[in-house]
């Protein structure tokens, strides 16, 4: 039983969100076997129709945004005697080795002859006689046995997993994540996917100053992000000529901000061309010299789309905790160079003024090189759950 998160609160357009969520689930589970799907009472029932690895099913479901909870269940006819007869066998795995339990019943079908307290009491008795070493603990049970009497059957369950929450990916439009090899940007992408955005990635490389391995690292990050974000389109922008032009023509102290503005200008054009509605970055106030308020102002000023910075108010520890959870931390901390560090100034201006930035930018015509970089951008696609890149060999 896949139970909705926030979608449950939606009004008239709820079915649109349900359609998207169902589609996302089908896509994620397709490789694991055959399933049938039907929806009722704010739940999607996912039923395996062939031999499948249910642990893997539950794991993949736990990554899908829009899901509030996943309840692994056995379905029986709505007849308490039948449930009681089968309870021992179905619950054995969950209850063997446990010390305490409680029963929670839900009577969504109001025509069911037994009342909720009665169901709980009776089922509790069944469990206790099957597993006599168990004790009831209604406050902090190790296992909660649930029986839900629904329109279409009685669902018995001993495993409920908290879902990924948020809104289904694809229900809020699409945005372009500026993905570096660092810790912050994958987390930023994860957070915006959680709000229902399709998150595709743009990455800037400066060969030969940055290596093939460094690029692979970022691709590996994008690949990992697909667990949560679904399929990802990956734009790789050749940035060397722009950086060399900057080095040769502009004051070094403005280099970082000018470089970021060029990145944003390229992102603007990809957004125009491919229909993205926003840019996402992993910037966080005060983390580095380019993330002071004035520097952020100067970067932001080059953007023609809203820039989402979901980690802006988080401290590094909080960001790291999420990156561990989404399994990007280890990859992010591999020691490869980023184009940001190429020609990076010894004394960057931490309080750049926009007039000075504009003047510095005017010393060279970057537009042609920006167009060229966009035209030469390579596109790759990473499929959900795929792992093709291994940097730990
Ligand atoms: P991160 O850990 O995400 O790299 P950071 O703290 O190292 O962030 P910066 O290197 O200043 O910060 O980068 C700030 C943001 O700029 C990044 O979060 C990312 O969104 C974007 N960015 C930086 N370098 C690149 C790059 N080479 N390609 C794409 N985006 C980049
Ligand atoms: Mg970085």
Description:
With 393 residues, this protein is α/β, with parallel strands linked by helices. Helices cover 39% and strands 21% of the residues. It has helices at residues 14-29, 54-61, 80-95, 116-130, 184-194, 212-229, 240-249, 255-274, 293-300, 316-325, 329-332, 354-361, 367-375; strands at 2-4, 35-40, 43-48, 67-76, 100-107, 135-136, 143-150, 153-162, 174-178, 198-205, 232-238, 278-280, 307-308, 378-382. The strands form 2 sheets. The protein has an 8-stranded mixed β-sheet with strand order 2-3-1-4-8-7-5-6. Strands 13-12-9-10-11-14 form a 6-stranded mixed β-sheet, with helices on both faces. The protein is elongated. Bound molecules: adenosine-5'-triphosphate and magnesium ion (MG). Magnesium ion (MG) is lined by residues 180, 182, 338, 340.
Protein topology:
Blueprint: E1 2-4, H1 14-29, E2 35-40, E3 43-48, H2 54-61, E4 67-76, H3 80-95, E5 100-107, H4 116-130, E6 135-136, E7 143-150, E8 153-162, E9 174-178, H5 184-194, E10 198-205, H6 212-229, E11 232-238, H7 240-249, H8 255-274, E12 278-280, H9 293-300, E13 307-308, H10 316-325, H11 329-332, H12 354-361, H13 367-375, E14 378-382
Parallel strand pairs: 5-6, 5-7, 9-10, 9-12, 10-11, 12-13
Antiparallel strand pairs: 1-3, 1-4, 2-3, 4-8, 7-8, 11-14
Magnesium ion binds next to loops.
């Amino acid at each position: 039983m896949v139970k909705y998160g926030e979608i449950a609160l939606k009004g008239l357009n709820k079915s649109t969100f349900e359609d998207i969520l169902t589609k996302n689930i089908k896509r994620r589970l397709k490789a694991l076997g055959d399933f049938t799907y039907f929806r009722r009472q704010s739940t999607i029932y996912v039923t395996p129709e062939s031999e499948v690895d249910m642990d893997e099913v539950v794991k993949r479901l736990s990554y899908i945004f829009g899901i509030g909870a996943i309840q692994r269940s056995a379905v029986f006819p709505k007849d308490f005697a039948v449930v009681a007869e089968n309870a021992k066998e179905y619950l054995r795995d969950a209850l063997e080795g446990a010390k305490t339990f409680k029963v929670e019943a839900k009577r969504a079908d109001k025509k069911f002859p037994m009342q909720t307290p009665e169901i709980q009491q009776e089922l509790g008795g069944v469990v206790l006689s099957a597993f006599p070493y168990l004790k009831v603990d209604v406050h902090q049970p190790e296992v909660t046995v649930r029986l839900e009497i629904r329109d279409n059957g009685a669902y018995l369950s001993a495993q409920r997993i908290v879902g990924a929450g948020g809104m289904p990916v694809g229900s809020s439009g699409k945005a372009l994540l500026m993905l570096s090899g660092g810790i912050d940007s994958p987390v930023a992408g994860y957070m915006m996917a959680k709000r229902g955005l399709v998150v595709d990635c743009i990455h800037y490389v400066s060969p030969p100053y940055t290596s093939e391995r460094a690029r692979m690292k970022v691709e590996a990050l994008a690949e990992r992000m697909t667990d949560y974000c679904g399929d990802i389109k990956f734009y790789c922008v050749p940035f060397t000529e722009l950086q060399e032009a900057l080095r040769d023509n502009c004051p070094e102290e403005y280099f970082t901000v000018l470089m970021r503005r060029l990145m944003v200008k390229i992102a603007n054009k990809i957004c125009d061309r491919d229909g993205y509605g926003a840019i996402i970055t992993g910037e966080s106030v005060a983390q580095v010299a380019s993330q002071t308020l004035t520097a952020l102002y100067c970067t932001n000023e080059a953007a023609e789309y809203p820039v989402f910075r979901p980690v802006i108010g988080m401290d590094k520890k909080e960001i790291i905790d999420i990156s561990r959870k989404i399994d990007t931390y280890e990859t992010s901390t591999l020691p490869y160079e980023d184009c940001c560090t190429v020609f990076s100034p010894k004394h960057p201006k931490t309080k750049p003024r926009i007039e000075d930035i504009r003047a510095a930018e005017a010393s060279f015509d970057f537009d042609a090189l920006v167009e060229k970089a966009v035209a030469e951008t390579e596109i790759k696609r990473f499929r959900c759950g795929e792992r093709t890149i291994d940097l730990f060999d």
